[in-house]
Structure formats: structure tokens, C-alpha cells
Design brief:
4-stranded mixed beta sheet, 6-stranded mixed beta sheet, single chain
């Protein structure tokens, strides 16, 4: 049976979240093969994440980087409790909120209605959400679109509203999955300033991004995922420089780092 993520008071002082040997696998559907040899290829399980060990601390901003399909968004959802690991344990101290494009909002509701629903789902009363509404509107800068259906919004507008809601509520741990990659420069600057406020208040922030420069600006620490496995976890500059070198020629880079290639190969399939 899958092991449910747990909240625990056993975390070390200052530790906001801990993942211990977390693994998650998905079932990959088989495909029909047409031609002379018609057959149904067997479906198989594959590791989306394997052997993830991670601690996130108060006041820390951690960047998650990796190529498409490396497991970044999957890991962010495990940390937020959206996905349950098949092995290992997730412990958290306080509230955790995931902000990702397409997650949590309902397109048929207006921006204002979505703010109210989201706030209530996050544990606030209707009165508490309404008390925050002016601040949320001011940050999102949507004007009359606050009273239009979310389905009419661009991706940048959705990001602005989602970020405004998430940071107005002040979760203990905020996870941002590619939401800063949309929107204009003004929004990105205001969002980065708001993140600094959260860190100063001892909240922890996790940033999932393809933008290496953005992660360098926002994060003092970075974690690099490849095929569901942690290749590097350390100071942001060191990890991101190695990741950038890797991206220019992955196969050659891994051949020159056999210990990391072995780590990837050992992740394997479930069969």
C-alpha cells in the first residue's frame, strides 16, 4: 500500500519539510504495433521519482531544475500532498501551497469568485478572504477582469491572480511551478520582491523553473533532477553551472561523470 505523506513534530529546528527515500511510479500504457507482427506491447511501470531525500528549511528558497520529463512537477506535487508516494515519507511543518498553471482555479468562475473559493479551500473564512480581497486585486492588477470568467484570461493573468492569492494567504511553504515564466516584466519583478518578503518572514519557497537565470536570482540552493533522480543538490551557482554544461551535450557530459550516469541507470524500471 502507498505510504501517506505525514505531518510530524519530529522535524529538526528550522526544518520546514523533509522527504525520506521518496519514490513514485506511474503506469505507462502499451501501444498497438501495426503491420505484419500485430501485437499489444505490454504496459509497464516506470519510476517517476526514486530515492529522493530532501530537507527544506525556514527562510530558504530552493530551485528545482531539470529537463522536460525529469520529474520536477511530479516532485512539487508530492511535496504539496497532491500525489502520494509509493515509498518513503513526506513530513511538513505548517501549511504547504502549490501554485501551478491550470491547478486549483475553475474557468467558469470569475477571478473574484475563484479567489473566494481558493481562500476557503485553504482554510480561511469568507470574512478573512474578503478582508484580503483589496490587497489581492492590487497585486494582480487585473482591473475589470476580476469580474470576468477565468476562461477569458491569458496564462499571464492567471499567474498574477494565483500568485496574489497564494502570497496574500502566507503559507508556511510556497511551491511555484513555472508560474513566473508567464506574465510581463513588471509582474516578475513584483513577484520576486514578494518572494523575498516571504523568505524574510521565515517561510520556505520552492521554485520549479526552466529559467536558469531566474533560479540564480531567486534561490541560494538548487536541486537538479534527471529521470526522477537527484543528480546534484547544493549551492545554486555550482549546481546551475553544471546543469548548463550538461544541457549543451548531455551524453558527453554524463560520460565524463560516470558516478552520476550510474545513479541514473540504477533508477531503472519496475518491469
Amino acid at each position: 500500500m502507498p505510504e501517506m505523506p505525514m505531518k510530524s513534530a519530529v522535524l529538526r529546528e528550522g526544518e520546514q519539510m523533509r522527504l525520506q527515500d521518496v519514490a513514485l511510479f506511474f503506469r505507462r500504457s502499451g501501444r498497438f504495433a501495426f503491420g505484419r507482427n500485430k501485437q499489444l506491447r505490454k504496459s509497464r511501470n516506470f519510476w517517476a521519482l526514486r530515492g529522493i531525500n530532501l530537507s527544506l528549511y525556514q527562510g530558504e528558497s530552493l530551485g528545482l531544475v531539470g529537463r522536460n520529463g525529469s520529474g520536477k512537477s511530479t516532485l512539487s506535487r508530492v511535496c504539496a500532498g497532491v500525489l502520494v508516494p509509493d515509498r518513503g515519507r513526506v513530513q511538513s511543518n505548517g501549511s504547504v501551497h502549490l501554485l501551478a498553471l491550470g491547478v486549483g482555479f475553475r474557468p467558469e468562475l470569475t477571478g473574484r469568485e475563484n479567489v473566494l473559493v481558493s481562500g476557503i479551500l485553504l482554510g480561511l473564512s469568507r470574512r478573512e478572504v474578503l478582508e484580503q480581497m483589496d490587497a489581492i486585486e492590487a497585486f494582480a492588477q487585473l482591473g475589470d477582469f476580476m469580474d470576468e470568467p477565468l476562461g477569458t484570461y491569458s496564462s499571464g493573468m492567471r499567474s498574477r491572480l494565483g500568485f496574489a492569492v497564494s502570497t496574500a494567504i502566507r503559507p508556511d511553504t510556497l511551491i511555484l511551478d513555472e508560474v513566473l515564466s508567464t506574465g510581463d516584466e513588471s509582474f516578475r519583478l513584483r513577484a520576486e520582491a514578494r518572494m523575498e518578503e516571504l523568505r524574510a518572514e521565515s517561510g520556505a519557497v520552492m521554485v520549479v523553473s526552466h529559467n536558469v537565470g531566474q533560479v540564480k536570482r531567486l534561490c541560494s540552493r538548487a536541486l537538479w533532477l534527471e529521470q526522477g533522480t537527484v543528480l546534484m543538490d547544493g549551492k545554486a551557482d555550482q549546481v546551475l553551472d553544471a546543469y548548463s554544461d550538461f544541457c549543451t551535450g548531455p551524453e558527453g557530459w554524463l560520460k565524463s561523470h560516470p558516478e552520476l550516469l550510474e545513479r541514473i541507470n540504477s533508477s531503472g524500471d519496475l518491469g
